[in-house]
Amino acid sequence: MKKKVTQAMTRAVLCALFTQALPLVAQAADTTPSYTLEDSTVTAERYQAPAPEPEPEEAPDEIPGGLTARTADYGAVGHLDTMDAPFNMTTFTEKMIQDRQASSVNDVIANDASTTDQTLSGASQAWTIRGFRSSQQDVSFNGLYGVAPRFYSGVEGLDRVEVLKGPGALLYGMAPNGSVGGNINFVPKRAKAGENQNSLTLSFGNGRQFGQDLDLSHRSDDGKTGVRLNIFHTNGSTSNSDEAVNTNSMTLGIDHEVGKSKMSLDLGYAYNKIDNPQYRLTFGSGFLGVKDLPSADHNKKYGAPDTFRHVTEKYGMYRYDYKFDDNVSAYLALGARETKMEYLYNDFRLNAKGTASIRYHVNNQINKANSEEVGVKDKFNIGDWKNEVTLAANRYAMKRYMKNRTGSYFATTYDHPDWGSNTLDKTWYEPLNDETTMKGVALTDVITSPNEKWTIILGGRYQKINQDTYTSGGTHYDSDAWTPAVGIVHKFTPRWSVYANYIEGLSEGDVVSGGYKNDGQVLAPYKAKQFEVGTKYDMGKALATLSLFQIKQNGEMEQDDIMTSSGEIRHRGIEASISGEPKKGTRLWGSLMYMDARYTEDAAYKGNHEMGIPRWTAVVGAEQDIHGVKGLSVNTRVTYNGSSYVDQNNLVKVPQWYRWDAGVKYEFTGLGHHPMILRADVYNLLNKSYWNALNNGPGLYLGTGRTAMVSLETKF
Question: pLDDT for 239-275, tens place per residue?
């Protein structure tokens, strides 16, 4: 693709002319006597105008250490500095992604204790934010849903990963799969100016995977046009028995600025093949009365031989911004994605007395999504108070062509399973399975006091949801909801602020079925309502955040043979985090979360803890430069997950666990005077075996045993 770029360059030469008037001395003679005076000297100091007050320096975008950033995209309200935002957001930078050698979104967000790993298999990643489950399907791309790959979770094409903690219906709209605990936003790479912005990285590890990553970047001399191309390949076995991965991906990012316009285009492609993936362990009803879980053994395999998942992702997004003047601007964003998946997988169910059952599934689908968003912003004053009003409208549409086939369970043993063989038809079918359309309009106002000590965000979003399914007789869902929000920030000093917010999240309601008196009724979208207070302190060399929150979400509950939406779960928690470089060469990051998640309005489980959610989670990381050896640094990270329940009855618990990672990085000048970086990391250094309890269980997934990764990056 070629694009003609026109440039207009203007240079002005300013000349300063200084003139000085020299006094003329005139003597006047008159008839009066004249006197002769002795010589005298008069001295005076030259007057100097006082130096102008220095303008306050703009806060750097990255927090010292470069692992996290201060600013983020808050959707409908735009980009904000964290000290001005009444929400809790962590933004991980490209440096964090590269230096931790992250290969997936879970590897990145593992550095935040507000998230927990909810991976279901070696082919499907998931996580929780503030205890609510989410997955790759609900990731936004530059603030827009329906663009990021639906199943592939690689991060090689990303500049940043933004993690909003708490609901975000006002900011981003309703997530396609109804995630309400927070949002993950992908920010694609952009071209950078300067030398050595191209790189080639060779890597080996995480089993026996050999990877190559070519990252090419070019920005025009005037800085107005940039192109960034990333090509990635990896192939080989993983640390799970018999599991193998083959991935090819490419991302292209182009940005251009001319006059009052800014444009960007992002295109992506990924092919991800996983053979013999690991799978979760589920439980039959007979086992849940037994409180002794099988021992976690990371060498144990729950995925059957000859299973696989093949995914092809094509996606793209175009954004155009136009600035009418200093106050009024508008934007348009268009995005689309097409995903093709072929999937053969199995369930492994543990029954009473050590027996097990296995069944197979075949799923093939083509998933097509497109999104559009248009908005206008206006800045004005009411008295001395600044207002920035945004009116935005968006639309998300998805069609899924899918054929899903499920076999019957057959008996085997837990210790030495007979995997049998899949007898399901694997012929490719793609009938239209379901389609969803979501439309929304959001109105927000960011209000700032004259002294900029107060920031108030007011807003609301109207959301319309329409879904049709075409299997098993078909269903039609058509409903809407209004989600208001308010946030307040008060700065006691430029470095210390407190904040509070009320904001909601949305997930699709249900069409009642199953023999209830109100079968066929459409239940309104379920709402998650959050109250949060917190404080942020910028220490100059580090940034710390402390927050307290409560989120309540309603859901299905049966009352007198009528299905209602009066069920409720409640998550109460405390979060603390810090990131920065308190001393030159010493970089730290860490976070802690306490969570009390319970069923509060449920006839069967009222008062019980929600399954799969530990009370305590923590992660602490550090990187230290070795001053005696230029370019050498060592790093370590410790992750802790408290115990959590496996089932809603709170009969079975997984024990607490911790994992210790360690690594080394060496930056040096190689052949041809090219900068080079050698990285080596060991994950789960002590080779601990542990379970993760699943939030959509009852189920468990094995943690990965000890793995290592070595890479060499060459810049040019």
Answer: 999 999 999 999 999 999 999 999 999 999 999 999 9
| Beta bridge pairs of residue 297 | none
DSSP 631: T
In our burial notation (b when 16+ CB lie closer than 10 A, e otherwise), range 89-110 reads: bbbbbbbbbbbbbbbbbbbbbb
CA of 334: how far to CAs of 75, 97, 321, in Å?
15, 27, 12
In 449-585, at which residue ranges do the beta strands (DSSP E only) sit? 454-469, 475-493, 496-507, 526-538, 542-559, 562-583
Q: What percent of the chain has pLDDT over 90?
A: 80
Element (H, E) at 524: none
**pTM for the whole thing?**
0.89
SS3 of 359-428: the string is EEEEEEEEEEEEEEEEEEEEEEEECCEEEEEEEEEEEEEEEEEEEEEECCCEEEECCCCCCCCCCCCCCC
Residue 5 φ/ψ, nearest 5 degrees: -110, 120
> Which residues lie closer than 8 Å to 440 by C-beta, 6 or more apart?
173, 174, 393, 394, 395, 461, 462, 463, 464
Cβ(132)–Cβ(528) below 8 Å: yes
The H or E element that residue 95 is part of is: helix 94-99
> What residues are paired with 211 via a beta bridge?
203, 234
Give the single-character DSSP code of 695.
Answer: T
CA distances to 150, 250, 434, 704 from 153, rounded to whole Å, are 8, 13, 24, 17
Element (H, E) at 129: strand 126-129
Q: CA–CA separation, 37 vs 75, rounded Å?
A: 82
Q: How far is CA 97 from CA 93, 105, 180, 577, in A?
A: 6, 9, 25, 18
Adjacency order of strands within the sheet including 68-69: 68-69, 88-92, 158-165, 182-188, 140-141
What is the pLDDT averaged over residues 674-678?
A: 97
- d(Cα 509, Cα 565) in Å, to the nearest integer? 8
pLDDT of 8 above 70: no
- How many residues does this entry show for the chain? 716
CA 418 – CA 405 distance, rounded (Å): 21
